[in-house]
Specification:
Blueprint: E1 4-7, H1 11-23, E2 27-33, E3 46-51, H2 62-72, E4 76-78, H3 88-96, E5 100-101, H4 106-113, H5 115-124, E6 131-135, H6 138-144, E7 152-156, E8 166-168, H7 174-184, E9 194-198, E10 204-212, E11 218-220, E12 224-230, E13 233-239, H8 246-262, E14 267-276, E15 279-286, H9 293-300, H10 304-312, E16 326-336, E17 342-344, E18 351-355, H11 360-365, E19 369-377, H12 380-393, E20 395-397, E21 399-401, H13 403-410, H14 413-417, H15 424-429, H16 434-437
Helix pairs in contact: 3-4, 6-7
């Protein structure tokens, strides 16, 4: 097992990884930008500054991160999620330097990170997909405008966090929406272009957590429902999924396992699907830790970060236990409106909070996630009641947050019944921006 690991990330995910490292008796070193040095996560043996606040020159700079790993004597690097967590070249560079990348191999990352290749693999396995094509430039979008039957969705080939995604209802709008999507996409990713996908109105967004070891042992966990999204950014996740036919969910889980095996996965990954009346369709695979891994941990009792580390060290899968109860997570987002805001987080039976020290400047620069508040209970109504109580207990003085909109959602009929879809959050909140509306 490793003696020292470099955590190449920031915020709550860095602290999440450091906690498991401490429990495993592994020394954790965290690599931070100069902007994050003012509020480092606890539990790190050492903090190394790897560059300025610009993520391109810190968290996205493989050379700086690997230099930090060598300098502190780390035997492995945990990339968290986002940044370089799915970058094949970073994984390969770690391998070439004799440092273990805690994640899949560069070959698996390259296959699953290329949506066309992943969809092609899914098709070969008999799993339906939504991908229609790829557009490299605005001129190509103009020429292809009438070759796609609208509505379609365009999204960056290399993106994340819901940025750059646009719904195209009229072919004539495709060139303009292409420009808008490119403008919203980070400059480093624009050259890859946009994917075009078939749009499914009122679909549900489900994902399946998969783990696989180097001996071919595999574990597939209950599906998570991630349909409640604000401008393509997930706000609420729960498991098991409510109001979905069990036979369809079971079939989807089997397909997720087949895809992971065919891709040669060793590690942890999530396979994402859209479900409609027509069936389910493969969206993409994320061969890394997901933000919402917390709800899976709450119903299974497993530490997925520990399993990532064990699998990267060549160990076999741990014995998995039957899932129990229900878990719901709310992501609390916020931006500081005062110089010294104050955040009071909840606790109590069945409540888990993932958060980390932060500064107002870092929230605005990187990610406005204040905390992930998760509730577990033996059944869904009880889990929802606990989560609502936890939100009442949460105080965010000096912040503009999305708590008001979360409360609107939790008392709505679609959420209470579990019969919701990817448009529900916008319908319940009227599409209002939490940033401008506040509380």
């Amino acid at each position: 097992m490793f003696r020292r690991v470099l955590v190449a990330n920031r915020g709550e995910v860095a602290l999440r990884v450091l906690r498991t490292l401490r429990e495993m008796g592994i020394r954790g070193v965290v690599a931070l930008s100069s902007l994050d040095l003012a509020a480092p996560p606890p539990l790190a043996e050492r903090v190394i500054c790897v560059g300025p606040g610009d993520p391109e020159r810190s968290y996205m700079d493989a050379h700086r991160l690997l230099t930090a790993a060598v300098a502190c004597g780390a035997e492995a690097v945990h990339p968290g999620y986002g940044f370089l967590s799915e970058e094949p070249l970073f994984s390969r560079s770690c391998r070439e330097m004799g440092i273990t990348f805690i994640g899949p191999s560069p070959e698996t990352l390259r296959l699953l990170g290329d949506k066309e290749a992943a969809c092609r693999l899914a098709g070969e396995l008999g799993i339906p997909t939504l991908l229609l094509g790829r557009l490299a430039a605005e001129d190509e979008a103009r020429l292809a405008a009438r070759s796609f039957e609208c509505p379609v969705v365009i999204k960056p080939v290399q993106g994340g966090g819901g940025r750059g995604i646009r719904l195209v209802r009229d072919p004539a709008d495709l060139p303009r929406l292409f420009r808008e999507a490119m403008a919203e996409t980070p400059a480093r990713n624009r050259g890859a272009g946009l994917y075009v996908e078939r749009f499914l109105p009122e679909a549900r967004h489900l994902e399946v957590q998969v783990m696989r070891d180097c001996r071919g042992g595999i574990a597939v966990f209950p599906a998570r429902d991630c349909s409640l999204q604000y401008r393509n950014q997930k706000w609420v996740e729960e498991t098991p999924a409510a109001c979905c036919p069990s036979s369809r969910v079971e079939s989807m889980a089997r397909d997720a396992g087949k895809l992971a095996e065919a891709a040669g996965l060793v590690g942890v990954a999530t396979v994402e699907f859209l479900i409609s009346e027509d069936g389910y369709f493969f969206l993409e695979a994320n061969p890394r830790l997901q933000v919402e891994h917390t709800v899976t941990e709450m119903v299974t009792g497993m530490d997925l970060v520990r399993e990532q580390i064990r699998l990267a060290a060549g160990e076999s899968l741990a014995e998995t236990l039957p899932s129990r109860g229900h878990a719901v997570e709310a992501r609390v987002y916020g931006l500081a409106r005062e110089a010294k805001p104050r955040l009071t987080l909840p606790g109590g039976p069945g409540i888990r909070v993932d958060s980390a020290p932060h500064t107002p400047q870092a929230l605005a620069r990187y990610d406005p996630l204040l905390a992930k508040i998760c509730a577990w209970a033996p059944d869904r109504p009880s889990a929802i009641a606990r989560l609502r109580r936890a939100l009442e207990e949460t105080e965010a003085e000096g912040y503009v947050t999305n708590i008001y909109h979360l409360n609107l959602l939790f008392v709505s009929d679609p959420f209470q019944s579990g019969d919701y879809h990817i448009q529900t959050l916008a319908e319940v909140t009227g599409g209002e921006s939490w940033i401008t509306c506040g509380e």
